Structures are given as structure tokens and as C-alpha cells.
Amino acid sequence: MTEKKYRIAWLPGDGVGVDVLDATKIVLDKLQLNAEYPIGDIGWEYWRTEGDAFPARTIELLKNVDAAMFGAITSKPVKAAELELIPELQGKGLIYRSPIVRMRQMFDLYICLRPCKAYPGNALNFKNDIDIVVFRENTEDLYSGVEFNPVPQELADVLNKLSKPFAAFKDVPLNELAISSKIVTRKSSERIIRAAFEFARKNNRKKVTVVHKANVVRATEGMFLEIANEIHREFPEIEMDDANVDAICMWLLKNPRNYDVIVATNMFGDIISDLAAQMVGGLGFGCSGNIGLKLGIFEPSHGSAPKYAGLYKVNPIATVLSAKMMLDWLGETEKAVRLEQAVADVINEGLVRTYDMGGSNTTLELGAAIAAKL
Ligand code: IPM
Ligand code: MG
Predict the structure, then answer these.
(1) Does ligand 1 lie within 6 Å of residue 101's CB atom?
(2) Ligand in nearest proximity to the CA of 15
(3) I need a labelling partner for 259 at 20 to 30 A (CA). Which of 45, 136, 139, 169 fits?
(4) Which atom of ligand 1 is nearest to the CA of 270?
(5) Which residues form the domain of 64?
(6) Are 18 and 310 within 8 A, CB to CB?
């Protein structure tokens, strides 16, 4: 039987996305993963020159791959983004939307999986033995893109009619009013919560913590918590507790070892996952997978850090660990285990370190040091 050859879309993006994917390639090559890596155009340059940071040809590419590795992309607010378009594209009403958010929604990558583990020997660990896995809903909530500024009269009329609390805003001029909708569905809530419990069951984890704000944001967060209580009944051997999002920011810092698997709606999951990543070394260690039924896109949770672009200075570990997550997702368990061990060994030895780790090695040197352990 011939071994399967994977097709893995290679999406460096811009900024340090290029640097960290270059380092990751060294590692995947050393692992001799049987794969081809077609490169996809994506990033700020395509926004400037084509008016689309995520061109149609890249969407097509993603329809025909097993998985993708993604670096990072510069994002700017709508007005600042428009100013950077080439003159031919100015004034055409083009609106910048973050490509990663579009990818997640377009390919229904409903799980954002973000493990945060304190690898022994990492001087940046906030405390030792932290091992938290965040499950973040990845397709809806405040990221739905249903937003209004100014607010159309029609919408204001409906809200006046249907929502009592909207009375507080009824005299605000509509061009001075902005609405971003927090939209949550039962279906997406069920599947992310179930994914968190299934992960706990499969990996012998003891507890799932549901993070919410059900006391104030009752419709969406209230429903999310209610659904969690329902799903928990399918997993009686796993403990469940819940916490308000503000409170968990304190408790996570105070007692990080009390937390195991965390599940949250999109925006709260975004915030909690940065906090958890910082406790295990910062964004240089924050790995992430955007996972759907057919496609997984793996990326570091950090941004494009334009000031470091091309300097090969930043830490590639977050991206290398994201590649490890990709191997797990592809079913390449043996390679995934070896890769994680190699990363753990390099961290523990502390001989090759990028600037954030207190060293002066380059991105590629750290990638090569990991490869050398394989
Ligand atoms: C993340 C990032 C993205 C998000 C940005 C870049 C749109 O913060 O992956 O956590 O908000 O989801
Ligand atoms: Mg984030």
C-alpha cells in the first residue's frame, strides 16, 4: 500500500507569518511528512493591490487540501485599511474583513482549539504544571459581522418596537449609534461544548469549565450555559463547573492548576486564550487549530507583528506546536508525539532561545534546533 500523500495549503500571510512558517517547514521536512505544500496568496499585499486579502483563488485552493498551515495577517480598522489601497481601488466601497475570520466561517471551522501547556524548563512560565486547553466557538457571536454604524432607521424602528431597553437609545442620532450583533445559535453552542467534553473524555481530563456572562448577557450567554448543562449529562464521569468571564480572569491567575478544559463563546474564548497563553510563555507559545469536519487550519495565535517582519527574530514555537496539532488532526500521531517531545527538549535544554526567551537565536535557528532533536 502506498502511503497517503497529503496536500497542505501553505499560507504564510504577511509580517512575521512568513518567518514562523519558514521555521516550521524545516521541522516538517525533517519529519519527512509525505506531503506537498501548495502556497496560497493571502495577506495585506493582496488587500492593497487587489482589494481582497483572501482572493478567490486561495479559497479554491482550500477546497482541495487536507489541511492548511497559516502564519499571520496584518489587520487594520476599516478606514485605515481603505487608505492603503492602491489609488485605482480607492473609493469603491471595499471593506476589509479579517481573512482568518472569513476562513473560519466560510469553511465552518467551528472549533478553535488552543492548548496552553507550561513546558518544563520554560523560564517564561507563570507557574509550573499549567495544562489548560481552551475550546473557543469559532464561527459566530460578536464575530458574526452583522454590524451597523450608522444604524438604519428601519432597524431602529424595529428595535424600538421589540426591545424595551432600546428606549435608552431612542433619542441618539442614528449616525452616532453603532450596533455589533452578538449572535449565538444552539447548533454551534452544542457542537463546541460537545467537542470540549469529548476531548476531555478521550484525553482523560477531569473537568470542563464553561466560561460565560449569563448573569448579564442573558439571551446568548444564558442559552450557552443552559446547553452546557444539558450536554454535561452525556458525560457524567467528567466534572463541569462554570464561571463568569471576568471572574475567571482572576481565578486563572490565582489558581491556574485548577483549570483543565475551558469552553466559551467566540469573543470570550479569544480573550481567555490570550490570557492562558501568556501564563505559559506568551504568544510565542500559543498554538491553535481551527477545526471543522473536513478542513483544519493551524496557526499561531499571535498576530503579524509588522515591526519584526522578515527579521527572523520571533519565536516559532507557537507555529511548530500548531503543526503538531495538525499532525494529530491528520492522524499522524507518532510524528505528533515526536514533534512535541522535540519542542519540549529544546525548551528544557534552554540552549537555543529567541529574544522573548531571553536568548539571541533566530527564528530559523530555533526551528533547526527542534528539527535536530527529531
Ligand atoms: C485570534 C486573533 C483573531 C481573532 C484576529 C486576528 C482577527 O486574535 O486568532 O485570536 O480575533 O480571532
Ligand atoms: Mg486573539
Answers:
(1) yes
(2) 1
(3) 139
(4) 10
(5) 1-109+286-374
(6) yes
